[in-house]
């Protein structure tokens, strides 16, 4: 479901205005009408992310031997020390972070699925996609160029176990934390799933919603293909 939200153009001015009205002491927006905030209920309804299940927890320490063995074992490819990106050397790994430009380039150039592709390889490609989706979209860093390696262990192993984790709770916690950080004097960037805040504003403060929603709409046949799509996909 999450890929449907990737087409949303982020309104930086709107999000900046909301961040200026965020109060870390109460985790609420102070508005002329009163105090409002984003709750777990709204995250579940708007995005479809699960809010029950196992907590998103794990070690933030780089494993012994670094991230290369885990990447090679779970994703099926090794990562060079540097890769030319737009004529410049850009490291694919940096202090436990995976390069988003390198990952995108690798997917476009080397990933191809057809009727003869083995199931194990399809699963590897799916994990690559998940890591990009989780590390680069749900929990992006401020540069939008790196995916934290700490997400790798959470996206390996049993597929059902991955889907049963409380991703919505973790995303909301990350959003709260980044709002508290960027509301401070001197803050210039934010690294969270700000698209959720924008969707929430569109729903609760309709005067800021798009006048022309057509660019955000999906084709009817694609929506019919989805089973119980989240509210904001509809």
UniProtKB/TrEMBL annotation:
Sorted alphabetically, the Gene Ontology BP terms of this entry are: meristem maintenance
What are the Aminotransferase-like plant mobile domain coordinates in residue numbering?
A: 6-211
The record's annotation in InterPro entries points to: AminoTfrase-like_pln_mobile (IPR019557), MAIN-like (IPR044824)
Q: Would you say which domain of life the source belongs to?
A: Eukaryota
Provide the protein name.
Aminotransferase-like plant mobile domain-containing protein
